[in-house]
Amino acid sequence: MGRNDQLTPFFRSAGQGRILGAILLGRPEERLTVSEIARRAHVPSSTAQREVDRLEQYGLVTSQRFAQSRVVRPNERSPYIDDLRSLVLKAYGPTFVLGEALAAVAGIHAAYIFGSWAARLRGEPGPPPEDVDVLIVGEPDSAAVDATMQEAEATLGREVQATVVSPAEWRAAKSPLLRTIMRRPLVPIVPVGNG
């Protein structure tokens, strides 16, 4: 059983969950086209189009046409939107996206989300974070990490910044940055396929 199989009663597929993630977890001012939603969710445009139609039918999103594009936003007036956003954040947010991306990178002993995203995932109130801070413990290939972070950025629609430290550096935690990271919320990233 995969990590998100337990969510099957709520989402028909992982694609649907990723589509909801693209729509609900973006920046508040962001208006996404159906094509951009499809790209971020890694689904065909026709799949994204059908899902947006369904979400709009049930009042979870609104859309407008501008020239040849259909622009989609969450319907913040829906009584379900906050709860749905919370569920989607936990199931298909940065933790899931980074877990998928980091699964193929060798040399990682542990990975965590820290900073504002970790605080939100742990229930601390605040505005939606602009970027995602990732701590990687291990000795992975730096080019592989950079490529993975770029892939995650494209899916999440926001910058992903990785800090890589060796296991010895993490255990010693001598730098002010590592001491600060250890004191604040940390959310483990479990590579998909390994969790």
Q: Key terms for this structure?
A:
single chain, 195 residues, alpha+beta, Arc Repressor Mutant, subunit A, Beta Polymerase, domain 2, 2 domains, 4-stranded mixed β-sheet, 3-stranded antiparallel β-sheet, 7 strands, 18% strand, elongated, disordered N terminus
Topology record:
Blueprint: H1 14-24, E1 32-33, H2 34-41, H3 45-57, E2 61-66, E3 69-74, H4 81-92, H5 94-102, E4 108-114, H6 116-121, E5 132-138, H7 142-156, E6 160-165, H8 167-172, H9 176-183, E7 187-188
Parallel strand pairs: 5-6
Antiparallel strand pairs: 1-3, 2-3, 4-5, 4-7
Structure commentary:
By secondary structure, the chain is an alpha+beta fold. It is built from nine helices and seven strands; from the N terminus they run αβααββααβαβαβααβ. Helix 1 crosses helix 2. It is elongated and about 55 Å long. The termini are close together. The relative contact order is 0.15. The model is unreliable at 1-6 (pLDDT under 50).
